[in-house]
Design goal:
The protein is of the alpha+beta class. The strands form three sheets. A three-stranded antiparallel sheet has the order 3-2-5. Strands 6-7-8 form a three-stranded antiparallel sheet, covered by helices on one side. It starts with 5 loop residues before the first helix and ends in a 23-residue tail after the last helix.
Length: about 325
């Protein structure tokens, strides 16, 4: 951690400046030996005082040892130590810290090798324990996170790992927090960034997903066909009990077909008599009448240009439908 040395350096400059000014005055008075002594004394005093002044930032806590024993926990702000007697081995950051860790080629419960990347959010709540209970708390928490991640992966199915990352994160948080609590470290949360599986397995899972979607589409299509068949059955019951409705429906179907397509192929069948559309000659006459109407409308809608406009009657009475 970066130390704040601005204020101690300022104190050193002030003391050194006073000593240098005094030595220069004595040198001007031809007292060179005393001037040199004052100058050296000022340098030593400035160095000792600046070394004894320490400044900790708002988020820093400082562990102070006196002759190898724990003396106090200092910070934030300014504090004093005795040079050569007191030492400062740790400047501890009490803010929320992050650590990235991973588990490579770890087998899941169903023996699938996976690579998992995760991020740990943690905070030091007891700087004294973090400094004295473990040699290197950062390395220790990284190793604890990796071993916990491998343990959780070995007890989890691949499908549960891909679908329930929140459960894995909660399990990791509990395990890591239990291991790091004696070190004065609190685990805030664990986030799983990515789960990598073998390419062959990924292709197989993709094919499985496509097959599942196709199956659902076929089920939906079959259900739609069933609903349409039910509606047709209800309509058939209505037409069976109401011949007039069947006749009107048949006429409407014939009209719609002739309106969109002027060419129609009529195949002799008993369906014509069943739908009460008249004889074959009547249908042919009706088709010719609609075709003539379309021809007249197309001729009237064409631009005249330089040619003589064609006089076409606006309407031609349709041919009557002959009934058998």
């Amino acid at each position: 951690m970066n130390k704040n040395r601005s204020f101690p350096f300022l104190v050193f400059i002030i003391i050194f400046g006073i000593g240098a000014a005094s030595a220069f005055g004595l040198h001007a008075a031809a007292q060179d030996a005393l001037a040199i002594g004052i100058f050296c004394t000022a340098v030593i005093i400035a160095s000792l005082i600046s070394a004894g002044i320490q400044v900790a930032d708002q988020w820093s806590r400082v562990v102070v040892l006196r002759l190898g024993k724990f003396r106090s926990l200092q910070g934030p702000g300014i504090f004093l130590i005795i040079p050569f007697i007191d030492t400062v081995p740790y400047w501890i950051d009490t803010r929320v810290l992050t650590s990235s860790f991973k588990a490579e080629k770890t087998l899941t419960k169903d023996t699938v090798p996976v690579d998992v990347d995760a991020v740990l959010f943690w905070k030091i709540i007891d700087p004294e324990k973090a400094a004295l209970a473990v040699a290197d708390y950062q390395s220790a928490i990284n190793w604890a996170s990796q071993t916990a991640l491998r343990d959780v992966i070995g007890k989890t199915m691949l499908s549960d790992m891909l679908e329930g990352r929140d459960k894995i994160s909660d399990a990791l948080q509990k395990i890591i927090d239990t291991r790091t609590e004696p070190w004065g470290i609190n685990v805030i949360s664990v986030e799983v960034k990515d789960v990598l599986i073998p390419a062959s397995l990924e292709d197989a899972m993709s094919m499985q997903a496509q097959a599942e979607r196709e199956r659902q589409a076929r089920v939906i299509l079959g259900d739609s066909e069933r609903q349409v068949a039910e509606k047709f059955g209800e309509a058939a019951k209505t037409y069976a009990n109401n011949p007039v409705a069947l006749h009107l429906r048949a006429m409407n179907m014939l009209y719609e077909g002739l309106k969109t397509n002027s060419t129609i192929v009529i195949v002799p069948s008993s369906a014509i008599e069943t739908m009460q559309l008249g004889g074959l000659a009547g249908l042919t006459a009706l088709t010719m009448g609609i075709g003539q109407e379309k021809t007249i409308k197309e001729a009237n809608s064409e631009p005249a240009g330089d040619s003589v406009p064609m006089q076409v009657p606006e309407s031609v009475p349709p041919s009557p439908i002959s009934a058998e």
